[in-house]
Amino acid sequence: MTTPVLTPRKLGATDLRLSPIGIGTWQFAGGRGFYHFYFRYIPPAEKAGIIRAARQGGINWFDTAEVYGFGRSERALRDALQTEQVAVQDVWIASKWWPLPRFAGSIRRTISSRLKSLAPYTLDLHQIHWPTSFASIEAQMDAMADLVEAGQIRAVGVSNFSADQMRQAHAALQQRGLVLASNQVHFNLLDRSIERNGVLDTARELGISIIAYSPIASGLLSGRFHRDPEALDSTPLIRRISLSAQVQRTRPLIDILAEIAGQRQVTITQVALNWVVTVHGEMVVAIPGASRIQHAEEAAGVLAFQLNADEIARLDGASQLVQ
């Protein structure tokens, strides 16, 4: 295992210490149903290789969700961890409860399925996937607090919550002697809305960590499609539609990413990810997806360097122009 420059940081005010880069495992649900149109099928041996590459590079946590194949991603993650003989105490796992069309009682009723899908691994961070439940935020946080008190989860997070919704969740958990650990939101060089809508400021005020999903904008910030526009033809349909219109608009930013990457002898993807987890100090961790072993190797390589102030400033300026 390499020695990272970017070392594990606390998730909010919890005792979870996560590497700045984790791995999102939405892709592990690919190949069947709806996900056939979004992600390719990943053979079990390759999923195990992804876990191995991530861990060898210093990554110590993985994010999944109930709705990713209705437990298929969770089970695939468990199987890959077991194939690699990863000890329970050596990995952190985050998952999410799907809220629509459900009430808070579903959080308690479905926890056994989450734990069964992941066993023998523990569910360390359980998150509300979207603020769309039929129940109040207070009722959802009460249900989550019950799980913490029962020893079924270690920490509570949310995802896609606004600043006001974060405050409500945080206050409700405080009534139970707990804290809101994190808010998982869209954040990357092309989408910096959390810096303007109060989410980042509220997280900083309350001591809540930000988990950035889609940190390379579904692959757009890798520069792959700028170098080879025909590569879009081989991507799944939904991704192709979302990416094709953005290639020309983002080319100036990609050029600067490429220049910095060349100077550091790293990849464009690694520069884009490093910006996400350094621009706001230790507040933000990121979960790039990995559908191939080299994706996990590349993600882990982000931990081996840190952008300097001048590089961050250049990227800030370029990204503001494409917001």
What does this molecule look like?
This protein is of the alpha/beta class and 323 residues long. The protein is 40% helix and 14% strand. It has helices spanning 44-56, 72-83, 105-118, 137-149, 163-174, 199-206, 224-227, 237-244, 251-264, 268-278, 293-301, 309-320; strands spanning 9-10, 17-18, 23-24, 61-63, 92-97, 123-128, 153-159, 180-186, 209-213, 284-287. The strands form two sheets. Strands 3-4-5-6-7-8-9-10 form an eight-stranded parallel sheet. Strands 1-2 form a two-stranded antiparallel sheet. The chain is globular, with a radius of gyration of 19 Å. It starts with 8 loop residues before the first strand and ends with a helix. The model has no long low-confidence stretch (mean pLDDT 93).
What is the topology?
Blueprint: E1 9-10, E2 17-18, E3 23-24, H1 44-56, E4 61-63, H2 72-83, E5 92-97, H3 105-118, E6 123-128, H4 137-149, E7 153-159, H5 163-174, E8 180-186, H6 199-206, E9 209-213, H7 224-227, H8 237-244, H9 251-264, H10 268-278, E10 284-287, H11 293-301, H12 309-320
Parallel strand pairs: 3-4, 4-5, 5-6, 6-7, 7-8, 8-9, 9-10
Antiparallel strand pairs: 1-2
Helix pairs in contact: 1-2, 1-11, 3-4, 4-5, 5-6, 9-10, 9-12
